[in-house]
Amino acid sequence: MVVFLYVLEDWDRPWDRDVFEAGVDSGTTVVNGLVCVFGLWACHRANGASTGADFLGRVVALGAVLLVRFAAFAFVLFALWVVLATWLRILLASYEDFDFVSVVVTVLFWWRLRLNVSMVAIPVI
């Protein structure tokens, strides 16, 4: 779902981008894709790898809840960013800023999902 959202975000870009914007956009999309692949692998390992139980169910259920939480968190950060950019007039909102923030949010998402998967995979004694 996260990779799909990044692809949709790329399609929403204006067509008159320069070479730098296109390069940053393409680079961060590739990095986000690699982070998603590595994050899924890390979640699989946290679930017990081949000996783990119900990996797909855990990742989908926990991931859906986290995706909603991260979407709400990202919306609040975006609104704060726009308010500060308007109020201080020193921060300029650009697509490149969003691209770099998207990498950080993707890393945080997969880190948290891996943590949640490891919590439900290990029985508490």
Describe the model.
The protein has 125 residues and is mostly helical. The protein is built from four helices and no strands. 79% of the residues lie in helices and 0% in strands. The mean pLDDT is 79. The protein has one domain.
Strand and helix map with partners:
Blueprint: H1 2-11, H2 19-46, H3 55-88, H4 95-121
Features:
125 residues, elongated, mainly alpha
Major sheet, described briefly? none
Tally the structural domains.
1
Q: Tell me the structural class.
A: mainly alpha
- Give the uncertain stretches in residue-range form: none
What would you call the quaternary organization? single chain
- Number of beta-strand segments: 0
Helix content: over 70%
Total helices: the number is: 4
State the separation between the terminal residues, measured CA to CA. Answer: 34 Å
The averaged pLDDT comes out at 79
Q: Based on Cα principal axes, name the global outline.
A: elongated
Radius of gyration, in angstroms, nearest whole number: 17 Å
Order of helical and strand elements? HHHH
Question: In what range is the share of β-strand residues?
Answer: under 5%
